[in-house]
Amino acid sequence: MQRRRIRISLCFMWGVLMMMVFIAGCASSEPSWTDFVGSTVEKNFPVPKEANQTETALNNSKMDYVHYKLTGLKESSEIPEAYQKVIEEWGWKEKKEESTGTTRVFEKGKQIVQLTLHDNSFTVLVPKKEEKTVIQGLESSP
Fold this sequence. Notes:
Layout: H1 2-26, E1 36-38, E2 46-48, E3 52-57, E4 63-69, H2 81-89, E5 93-94, E6 103-108, E7 111-118, E8 121-127, E9 133-135, E10 138-140
Antiparallel strand pairs: 1-2, 3-4, 4-8, 5-6, 6-7, 7-8, 9-10
């Protein structure tokens, strides 16, 4: 009888231990900031490979954007240093005078990208360039 209780206790403890290992393995972890791919809206702008695309707006008349989910980001913090470094390595320069709050503006050549941090996500937005058209000799914006 005593051996049976010991076996049951050991099985119970083993089960609890396995459950704890399972839960720890499924818990959210910080991004690794090691692998990057081009963004859906601007292939030359890096996004972490771990990021999951959740929403996209393409062919909008004023902008294209994509929203990515990435656990571990905080709206109240700066762009992680490793990510900032990769953005610069890909040739993007921050336009600090245009960056505000959680939105950072980057420029590469004539291309502009806005990166906005949220809690556990971020958005990459590419504003469309306003093209002026000439109608009957007069210059106007669409």
